[in-house]
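Data deposition worksheet. Section B asks for the primary sequence of the deposited chain exactly as it was used as input, without tags or linkers unless they were present during the calculation. Section C holds the resulting structure in token form. Section D is free text for depositor observations; keep each observation to a single sentence. Incomplete worksheets are returned to the depositor.
Section A, Depositor: J.P.
Section B:
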Amino acid sequence: MRSAIPSVAFGLLVVVSAACGSSSGLAVSEGFGPTPTLPAPDTSLIPSINVVTAVGWAGTQAPTPAAGLGVTAFARGLNHPRWLYVLPNGDVLVAETNGPERPEDSTGIRGWFFKRFQKKAGGAVPSANRLVLLRDADGDGSAELQTTFLSGLQSPFGMALVGDTLYIANTNAVVKVPYQTGATTISATPVEVVALPAGLRNHHWTKNIIASPDGSTLYVAIGSNSNVAENGMDEERGRAEILTVNLSSGTHRTFATGLRNPVGMAWEPETGALWVAVNERDELGHDLVPDYMTSVRYGAFYGWPYSYYGQHVDTRVEPPRPDLVALAVVPDYALGAHTASLGLAHAGVAASWPTPFGAGMFVGQHGSWNRTPRSGYKVLFVPFSAGAPSGPPVDVLTGFVTGDGNAMGRPVGVTADPRAGLLVADDVGNVVWRVRSLTTPATSTR
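Section C:
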């Protein structure tokens, strides 16, 4: 445990750091791709601090789409929308959610400053703890129905429909409710499927789920309970991993480990592989460590907390585990340092979009607090060929942050809709955006 003196020093010095700070020596693009540049770590006591100020969109303001694309508000006036799920009939579920009460997370003077930064960036609003249903019955790209679908949840995030059962990942458990096609509300009490690690610290509270293509298994992404296990590995049991749940038997097992904060998951159709977007560790400087997306192999270890991007040892972690470092798998594709890459979706029906948007993955980047200049705050597209990334990322949606550091919005979840569009949850703007090709009619049938 850190003593009071270093904590006070952190609090005082962080003000100086925020005021004058250093800046990156690398372009953010050097932290992308299969072989990102990995400079020497900066393990100074005070991390770089460069936090946005959450403002929100005024009137009809909107982010900026790439050339050949258009963007419209699919729904406005939401309450901290974080994650999206499209039902087979085209209805869209939105998780209006935020972290639960976590009295043991970010404690002391150091924690006090981080909580203030979180509030400044728009991340401290109370959780609405509900799913909202959006329906665009006439297909004009705007939802005319916006209604509470299921309430009384506990910091819900991931959703998956298997048959007539809707599974929801609360922060402390996967639960299920019955679903009927076309339903606009559910009154049934959720039933627990499997408990998930939570508790009084619950550092990475979001839990995501995705069903296997045959509907037999749920994959559950669970983040770590710290930055780099600074509270000990006992608090990391069942964390920093992907779990599988057999829906017939209810049994569960660990699928992959060493993933600091796995969030978005998507199936790659050519290979059938599961892909995941992972937020890597902080406080090693402006350019470490790149977030990444990777195909996930059963039984694989991806390094956290002992190493990063393969076998690059993090010397802050005690005791070291060279035996595990030797097993660490190198991720497939880096997504830039501190970009907070959360959303991940295969292009799906959006593959009919014009060049350079074809087969590939969309990535929602919530944006950095630990880098100067800032990174993320955009939606990207990473092209794929033969089931693997095949080129540099392409901006899809930008303009979320102004030059003076005001965040009009921050993208989180992304998903393809059945009308050849892309939906983006914006938790600071309280909007779900719809991006489409300008060569595709604005109105189309399902």
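Section D:
The helical segments are 4-20, 108-120, 322-325.
The first strand starts at residue 32 and ends at 33.
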